[in-house]
Amino acid sequence: MIVKSIKLVNFRNHKEYYLECNDETSLILGKNGCGKTSVLEAIYILMRGKSFRAVDSEILKRGQDYYRIELLFYNGDKIIATFDGKTKYFTILDKKTKRLPNKNKYPVILFIPSDLNLISHSPGRRREYFDRVFGQLDNKYTSILNKYEKAIKQRNELLKAESLSKEQLFSWNVLLSNYGVELYHYRTNCIDQFNQRITNLYRSIAENDDNIFINYKTESPPSSEEYLKKLEQSFEKDSYLGHTTFGIHRDDYIFEFNGQPADGSASRGETRSIILAVKFIEAELIHEQTNKKPLILLDDVFSELDETRRKCLIKNFKDHQVIITSVESIND
Fold it and tell me: Where do the domains of the chain lie?
């Protein structure tokens, strides 16, 4: 449907590797540590522009001075990524670029074992997860987020200076206020869409009448003027600590189970059903907003799910191209 083949050279522990993908489901079997996840990582890089778990210097096979990955789509298009030890380039139609253009990106639903612990993860991991989701719904979100992160890095550098005045931070405060409010509205809107669906989807998986809610926790105000005021009010505290203590970068997403934090009140099986519901919503929203059915990458998650939830996963993604890694055959 989407990916026809993937070829790796000097990528992690693979000197050379080639995978011809099936139209619907492809299964990559192998023992732990043999490089199954690396294949999904390579596909992800060529479809989204960067790895979901490492920087390029860590991906390069030890002792080699370059890696190359090549993805062939069913429509005949091809994307090649090469890393020469310093810089990564994407080649599309014989044109080289350091970044994968938005028009050449394709949506991916990535499901890795650590996602099953999303509810109990740190706020930073939850932000990272939802940032990745929201960025696939709208490329503008990722662009604004990158600008915000660059601005806050500059502001934090200034805060480490021995002598600093409020005036020196003003321009960065303005930028952070504008970007922060834009991110706030994106996040509020996206989480509202999740919350409109999550309880019904969860109930269809768990077959009960529990209520699920994702509580978007933020101190950020809805206007840039208020945001700017709060940044200015935090000047003394930020100067003392050497970093920005207020802002959208401190947001969190708290999963609630029947009105209580799910971390602690939901069972292991219930939390897995919640995460499955989140993944199904992610796929639904991407299809609705981009008119593309995302590629599904499942990295050894079947071993973490019982038979009922495995069947549910297969049923909900039956109309997608799915690439699965596993240590054992899957008979569902």
Answer: 1-106+292-332, 121-291
Report the CATH number of the 1-106+292-332 domain.
3.40.50.300
Bridge-partner residues for 108, per DSSP? 295
- Please give the Cα distance from 134 to 76 (Å, whole number): 29
| Number of Cβ within a 10 Å radius of residue 196 | 10
The highest-level CATH class for domain 121-291 is: mainly alpha
Q: How far apart are CA 171 and CA 190, in angstroms?
A: 29
Strand partners, 79: 71
pLDDT in tens, 206-264: 999 999 999 999 999 999 999 999 999 999 999 999 999 999 999 999 999 999 999 99
Whats the size of the chain, residue-wise? 332
- Give me the half-sphere count of Cα atoms (radius 13 Å) on the Cβ side of residue 16: 0
pLDDT of residue 162: 79
Nearest-CA neighbor of 248 among 227, 225, 275?
227
Provide the mean pLDDT of the chain: 95
132, 142 in Cβ contact below 8 A? no
Helix pair 123-137, 139-159: axis angle to 10 deg: 140
Largest CA distance in the chain: 66
What is the signed CA dihedral for 163, 167, 169, 175, rounded to 10 degrees?
-170
Contacts of 244 (CB under 8 A, 6+ apart): 152, 155, 156, 159, 176, 231, 234, 238
Q: What is the pLDDT of residues 113-165, one digit of tens each?
A: 999 999 999 999 999 999 999 999 999 999 999 999 999 999 999 999 878 88
